[in-house]
From TrEMBL, chain A:
Residues 4-234 form the ABC transporter domain. One of its GO terms (molecular function) is ATP binding. GO terms for cellular component: ATP-binding cassette (ABC) transporter complex, substrate-binding subunit-containing; maltose transport complex. CDD domains: ABC_MalK_N. Pfam families: ABC_tran (PF00005), TOBE_2 (PF08402). It comes from Chitinimonas taiwanensis DSM 18899. This is Sorbitol ABC transporter ATP-binding protein/mannitol ABC transporter ATP-binding protein. The lineage of its organism: Bacteria, Pseudomonadati, Pseudomonadota, Betaproteobacteria, Neisseriales. Gene3D superfamilies: 2.40.50.100, Nucleic acid-binding proteins (2.40.50.140), P-loop containing nucleotide triphosphate hydrolases (3.40.50.300). Keywords: ATP-binding, Cell membrane, Membrane, Nucleotide-binding, Transport.
UniProtKB/TrEMBL annotation, chain B:
InterPro entries: BP-dep_ABC_trans_perm, MetI-like, MetI-like_sf. Residues 71-261 form the ABC transmembrane type-1 domain. The chain crosses the membrane at residues 75-95, 107-128, 140-159, 187-208, 239-260. One of its GO terms (biological process) is transmembrane transport. Its main location: membrane. Coiled coil: none annotated. This is Sorbitol ABC transporter membrane protein/mannitol ABC transporter membrane protein.
Length: 351, 275
């Protein structure tokens, strides 16, 4: 049975229907990530769950209790904000103990809980400081600490890492994953960063335009996207999606007589390069991105198809070189004109 | 570090700054000097800058009118109207700053627009209302009017102060289980203290110096210091020294008060919570 159930959740901003009937069941202990392009409604949906915005339709049930109309203060949820939103006039200790103080928890218990959380988050030396005396990463940890001392029913994270620099972001991501393993708390995490989504989530919810496009484990989304949007949203670099008529002869690889309709989706790792004339089609190198561990080679064909190939070895190719493109037809996804999937490719196990 | 050289521009600027400062300070200085002169010295042309100061005018003011009564009225009307105003303006500004609706800006503009009407335009109806309700020459009438006339400014000032407070901090308090009162008491009050203090202080000064309504709606019983000053420019002629002495007595408390609260006025909380 669902621990947190969203049933037909709706939100209007004036005339604009921002959230269009979201149904979702979240299990206890699960790490759920809401991901999607900006403006897709992921943060709004989180704020609706938090009670910071009013729900205009549908029902929200937490642990068997209808909390749709309950104010935030009574929902027993904790939230980590993008801007951290620490109380600037309180010390780290006071920040972390604020919720417990409000709940009139015994002073000794508060001290013990805060100190334990501070130990977990390496904040023990900073308990008497104010937020402005802390670095960005430390503030972030205080914000997380403030959430965990309360042991709430659900943790809500609203893009918590986007104010950190790249190195710290990666490190904190790992720490959050570790923390979730240790605490086993139900978590909803909003991000626009698909790496965070893929690495942290038990299940990812891909949102677009206030609607769910797909819910699934990270690899399900990667291997079996429900549509072209999800296919292109998940994965870096993006999945190659090329109109089928730009890839003549590909249908023979599928064993078909008639040319394919719609669009063909290929992960960059399913596109290999070879000598000109030896592949499925020919093309020309347009750009090479040597990232060290892998090399991305951008190729355009005479018909105008653009393809990215990912390979794990260094490449002797130069810009403008003629190459052959070898397409792994088994791995190709097919989409119809509306972007719906008509055929899933087989996940390439060998790569 | 090189010392800044006295360039012509800098010199000109310094001179200009001093000139402006002296110009602004001149009436106050002249008032101060005149208050310690005799009536004869006060009207001397050219004005005497060196004279033996006398407390004659103060003595005169003290015997002729009950300074303490007027001072008490001023304190009560300005303090109570300011507190009452804050009580109404703080929740109003809170909801406008943190729960903006599509019409919030319009409401703020509308509130400000009431300040654009000259007070005298409302004199007759207000006077009649005060008369019918038996509030003429009562402190209550002045308190209500001071409060109402300051309310738009109070809401505006508080609104712009509150808007500088990141709303997430209040949301965080709500998520932490704070009810409305706790959110106000534990988070908004400490963070908005600077804004509330400067708003309150400004309104205190405005109410203290308010003359139009106190002159028209009060006299012997509820009169404030502004009416005391006015009583020295009477039909029998101007008594410059006594007028100055009364004015000095009237503004002294608020000047001293302003001097001491200067720091609170300027001081703002620095935010470390948000990047």
């Amino acid at each position: 049975m669902a621990y947190l159930a969203l049933k037909g959740i709706e939100k209007f901003f004036g005339e604009h229907r921002a959230i269009k009937g979201i149904d979702l069941s979240i299990h206890q202990g699960e790490f759920i990530v809401f991901v999607g392009p900006s403006g897709c409604g992921k943060s709004t949906l989180l704020r609706l769950i938090a009670g910071l915005e009013q729900i205009d339709g549908g029902e929200l049930v937490l642990d068997g209790r209808d909390i749709t109309k309950l104010p935030s203060s009574k929902r027993d949820l904790a939230m980590v904000f993008q801007s951290y939103a620490l109380y600037p006039h309180m010390s780290v200790f006071e920040n972390m103990s604020f919720a417990l103080q409000l709940a009139k928890v015994d002073k000794a218990v508060i001290r013990e809980k805060v100190e334990r959380a501070a130990r977990i988050l390496n904040l023990s030396p900073y308990l008497q400081r104010t937020p402005k005396e802390l670095s960005g990463g430390q503030r972030q940890r205080v914000a997380i600490g403030r959430a965990i001392v309360r042991a709430p029913k659900v943790f809500l994270f609203d893009e918590p890492l986007s104010n950190l620099d790249a190195a710290l972001r990666g490190q904190t991501r790992v720490e959050i994953a570790k923390l979730h393993r240790e605490l086993g708390a139900t978590t909803i995490y909003v991000t626009h960063d698909q790496v965070e989504a893929m690495t942290l989530a038990d299940r990812v919810v891909v949102l677009r335009d206030g609607q769910i496009e797909q819910v699934g484990t990270p690899l399900e989304l990667y291997d079996q996207p429900a549509n072209q949007f999800v296919a292109q949203f998940i994965g870096t670099p993006q999945m190659n999606v090329v109109q089928a008529e730009l890839l003549p002869g590909l249908h023979r690889a599928f064993g078909l007589e008639t040319p394919l309709q719609g669009a063909v989706g290929l992960r960059p790792e399913d596109v290999a390069l070879c000598r000109p004339g030896q592949g499925t089609l020919d093309g020309q190198v347009e750009l090479i991105e040597a990232l060290g561990a892998e090399t991305l080679i951008y190729v355009s064909t005479p018909l105008g198809a653009q393809l990215v190939a990912r390979q794990h070895s260094r490449s002797p190719l130069q810009l403008g070189d003629a190459v052959g493109v070898q397409i792994d037809a088994q791995a190709a996804h097919l989409f119809d004109a509306q972007g719906r999937i008509t055929r899933h490719g087989h996940a390439a196990q060998t790569h | 570090m090189a010392r800044s050289r006295l360039t012509p521009t800098l010199m000109a600027r310094t001179v200009l700054a001093w000139a402006v400062a002296l110009l602004l300070f001149f009436p106050l200085a002249f008032l101060f000097l005149t208050a310690f002169k005799t009536e004869l010295q006060a009207i001397a042309v050219p004005p005497e800058l060196i004279f033996s100061p006398t407390l004659e005018s103060f003595r005169e003011v003290h015997t002729r009118s009950d300074y303490l009564l007027f001072a008490k009225n001023s304190v009560i009307t300005s303090v109570v109207s300011t507190l009452l105003g804050l009580l109404i303006a703080v929740p109003a500004a809170y909801s406008m700053a943190f729960f903006r609706g599509p019409r919030t800006k319009d409401i703020l503009m509308w509130m400000l627009s009431t300040k654009m009407m000259p007070a005298v335009g409302a004199l007759v109806p207000v006077y009649v209302l005060a008369q019918y309700s038996g509030l003429l020459d009562t402190k209550l009438a002045l308190i209500i009017l001071f409060m109402l006339s300051n309310l738009p400014i109070m809401v505006w000032m508080l609104y712009s102060h509150f808007k500088d407070i990141p709303p997430e901090i209040l949301e965080a308090a709500r998520m932490d289980g704070a009810n409305l009162w706790q959110e106000f008491r534990r988070v908004l009050l400490p963070l908005g203290m600077g804004g509330m203090a400067s708003t309150g202080l400004l309104c205190l000064v405005l109410s203290w110096n308010e003359a139009f309504w106190s002159l028209n709606l009060s006299s012997a019983k509820a009169g404030t210091l502004a009416t005391l000053i006015a009583s020295y420019s009477s039909p029998e002629g101007l008594f410059w020294a006594k007028l100055s002495a009364a004015s000095l007595l009237a503004i002294a408390p608020i000047v001293v008060f302003g001097w001491f609260s200067q720091k609170q006025l300027v001081q703002g909380l620095t935010f470390g919570a948000v990047k």
